[in-house]
Amino acid sequence: MVKEQYLAKSSKRNQYDAEPLERHTNKLINLFKDFISKYGEKFTKKEIDLIMLACEKHDLGKLNYKFQKELYKKSKLDFEENEEIEKFYKKHKNLNPIPHGILSCCFINSNELKEKYEFDKSDINILATSIYNHHNREFNSDDYVEVFEEIIEKDLKVNAMNYGIEYCNSNGLSKNKIKNNKIEIDIEYQYNFWLKFIVVKGMLNKIDYAASTYLYNKNEIGIDTLELSSEDASAGVIKKFGDKLNDCQKFMGNEENKDKNIIVIASTGIGKTEGALLWAGDSKIFYTLPIKVSINAIYKRIWDENYYDKNKFTFLHSDAKSIMRKDEEIDDYQLKYEETRHLIYPLTICTVDQLFYFVFKSLGTEKYAATLKYSKVIIDEIQSYTPDIISFLIFGLKVVNDLGGKFCIMTATLPPIVKYFLEEAIGKENIRIAEKPFYKEDDKGNIIIRHKIKYEEKDFEYNKILEKAKNKKVLVICNTVKRSQDVYEKLKEENKQNIEINLLHSRFIFKERKDKEDKIQKFASSDKFGIWISTQIVEASLDIDFDILYTDMCSADSLLQRMGRCYRNRIYEKDESNIFIYDTKIGVGTVYDKDIFEFSVEHIQEYNDKIFTEEDKQDYINKVYEIERLKNLDNENSYYKTIKKNIKDLEIFP
């Protein structure tokens, strides 16, 4: 065979020509050159050299005879057999093909890399490990220990020479060096090694996929296959608000803060979303939220306000594909979903689990970390997460920071324990926190009063809920789906005056739930009265504003989120309560941490029958999540110890 005859890909359903190896490799190289012309300042010279070499060498293992014969067979092309190599494989007919990523490592010339690129042993191991694992293939190395070097000599070297490559040897991969489907390295596999590895392998996987998509369409391949060009996310906000930005938005959009990790505490409805877009500017952006309904709402808000080019932002969560399929604005939902999953959009609104699974170090997740290296991440309402999620989020943000990416945490209230672990992981010097929280003010500069609370240790008073719903919008939030269903049935039984009553929770089928999400938002902005019963899915970032809230007692962070759905943007001037909290004990120890729940109950009673100011809310959070008290709990599964243990476990490397 001559060079042009070696294939990288078989033809797909005979619709397109099989792709030569040289063409495929050149596509990766050209894609990466386009990429570094845009993002090169985010990478060191060594990182660029390692990624380029990985692109050049990652598929050279496909030169092996068995692989080429199989590709030719799949493509229904005539294959020119080599008598000597055929004889060799007949002798070892029970051997399965060696994954090409392993064989590609035979083309790594350590001496040349040390001399030409000044690589050290660690650099070479990073390159080899990235190429070796760029596909996760099962491989039982024990079957090959005795014949591996023979395969290199009698097959790979012969085909490498035909292809025009002089260097090819076992490179230390033979015998006991190929174990457990990874290269056994001499240095300890620690954090800094892993950081470099996820950048090189992650970028290799991204670029390889982008180059391979050309096989499925006839578009000219270019940088847009890998990364759509970004917009300036601040432009739409500035166009709308002009010089009328509030102090929170000014802080987030300040040029000095745009290249910093920042934390902003700001009251609900103050415009944190716009502030986050000002901070992000023209960077690649990932905007994360706790729940799907919140993501859908923020996506719609950015769409409706024309804050971003509609063709260049997207959303990603477990129901994203179904929503895209039903969206009349999307021409090809399948393509958009695939492009979204491969992170090509400059603005993606998503759940944190879509981005941060790389913290568990699973092969195949490196592209997420590599992408976050040159991106900005917005974390909205971090206090809404469980200790487990906070743990991997904090470790993930440490990785983002250490790779060179930036993050913005914005929240109505910040539990001090979250700040404590963030500063411990990342360092105080690497986080800029606004000097004081930003609270919504009236025309005279006074902080808006929105809530007066009433706390009781009993079940809801259903007749009172119905009475208030005659001339008000009443929101009822329950701790579990079962509880919401029971409350709905009881209110229906007591409803003698035909008051509108609706139910929303996560167990409705997708279409029905989506319809209900739309309906509750329309109801909230209408002049209608009635009752909506829901669960936690209305807590975060859903832009609804009710007159009265009835809620099960819950943890402090959730309680404040729920309050944010009542008098969201209005001044409350009445003497009677508009927030009614009932300590029903539902969800304690299951939905909510028992200690945090009890502390939340203890301290909310300090504000019973009182106006609950914005400053009171942060004070309340500070009391519930006070560090020393949480540290000293005699409970191995406590909130503090769970986070600490999880972060420590994530710092362990194989």
Overall description:
The two termini are 42 Å apart. Helices cover 44% and strands 10% of the residues. The longest helix is centred in the N-terminal third of the chain and has 22 residues, at 191-212. Helix 22 links the parallel strand 14 and strand 15 (530-534). It is elongated and about 95 Å long. Residues 178-188 and 215-219 have low confidence and may be disordered. It has 654 residues and is of the alpha/beta class. The protein contains 27 helices and 17 strands. The strands form four sheets. It has a seven-stranded parallel sheet with strand order 7-8-6-9-10-5-11, sandwiched between helices. It has a six-stranded parallel sheet with strand order 12-17-16-13-15-14, sandwiched between helices.
Approximately how much helix is present in the residues? 40-55%
Alpha-beta content class = alpha/beta
Largest sheet: 7 strands, parallel
Radius of gyration: 29 Å
Shape: elongated
Number of extended strands: 17
Number of helices: 27
Summary?
By secondary structure, the chain is an alpha/beta fold. It is built from 27 helices and 17 strands.
Spell out the key features of this protein.
alpha/beta; 27 helices; 44% helix; 654 residues; seven-stranded parallel beta sheet; six-stranded parallel beta sheet
